[in-house]
Amino acid sequence: MIFDTHTHYDDEAFEEDRDALISSLSAKNVGLVVNIGASLSSCRETLRMAEKYPFVYGAIGVHPSETAELNEDNFSQLSEMVKHEKCVAVGEIGLDYYWPEPDRETQKLWFKRQLGLARELNLPVVIHSRDAANDTITIMKDMHAEEIGGVIHCFSYTRETAEIFLKMGFYIGIGGVVTFKNARKIKEAVEEIPLERIVLETDCPYLAPVPFRGKRNSSLNIPYVIEEIARIKQVSPNEIEEITWENAHRLYRI
Ligand SMILES: [Zn+2]
């Protein structure tokens, strides 16, 4: 069965058919899904969905691009939500320097605070890192992220950088981007990353794989990602599905 480790089914892109789509997943071989919070409101939605569907779990956290909304008051709300019985991780948290806002100091502050929260509650983290490899690694080392564990979602760096995250014990999230023709760097990284450390993700509604690039993504497209990883690793798609299913259970400790 397929384990989609990173979805945003609370997104408005699913307004029309959210229930029908999520309810259809198990019949189409998608056995488990972790919906990822990105803002305080999406965290609340995430928990609502996790309560509704037995096969949906949640990660609770604020995305670097949304950290301007955080303050001490609502951070304590976040800390409460994280204690929900179906919350399996703190995320997505991290640094995104592709966008100029919020400023880097704000992003770094809340990345550290949320890493601290994960440590306190003994939960893994889901890390979003874009155009910010050096600062991400520095903060992770300062905060002893190797004792926290988690996943680098939508991995977009080189194989050398993957090596650093792997040494810290992290899993690497691979999604639709690996199917893009111009994704040479990611394909090379996948070649190097041990299969035992790869987990599957969509980041839906974003990042649909070829042949649906640019369209709305969903967990139903993961077989295209599996096929490409299988081609790179020269093993059967079945094996990819089984091993990543086990990996995701270890990552989220469920
Ligand atoms: Zn995401």
Folded structure, characterized:
There is one protein chain. This protein has 254 residues and is α/β, with parallel strands linked by helices. The chain has an 8-stranded parallel sheet with strand order 1-2-3-4-5-6-7-8. The protein is 41% helix and 17% strand. It has helices at residues 18-24, 40-52, 72-81, 104-121, 133-142, 159-167, 184-192, 222-233, 237-252; strands spanning 2-7, 30-36, 56-60, 87-96, 125-130, 150-152, 171-174, 198-200. It has 9 helices and 8 strands. It has one domain (2-252): Metal-dependent hydrolases (TIM Barrel). Helix 5 (133-142) links the parallel strand 5 (125-130) and strand 6 (150-152). The longest helix has 18 residues, at 104-121. The site of zinc ion (ZN) has 5 residues, from loops.
Residue share in helices? 40-55%
Major pleated sheet: 8 strands, parallel
Bound molecules: zinc ion
**Strand arrangement in the largest pleated sheet:** 1-2-3-4-5-6-7-8
CATH topology: TIM Barrel
CATH architecture: Alpha-Beta Barrel
> What overall form do the CA principal axes indicate?
globular
Number of helices: 9
Mean pLDDT: 97
Entry summary:
Helices cover 41% and strands 17% of the residues. The chain contains nine helices and eight strands. The model has no long low-confidence stretch (mean pLDDT 97).
Write the layout of secondary structure elements.
Blueprint: E1 2-7, H1 18-24, E2 30-36, H2 40-52, E3 56-60, H3 72-81, E4 87-96, H4 104-121, E5 125-130, H5 133-142, E6 150-152, H6 159-167, E7 171-174, H7 184-192, E8 198-200, H8 222-233, H9 237-252
Parallel strand pairs: 1-2, 2-3, 3-4, 4-5, 5-6, 6-7, 7-8
Helix pairs in contact: 8-9
The protein binds zinc ion.
Zinc ion binds next to loops.
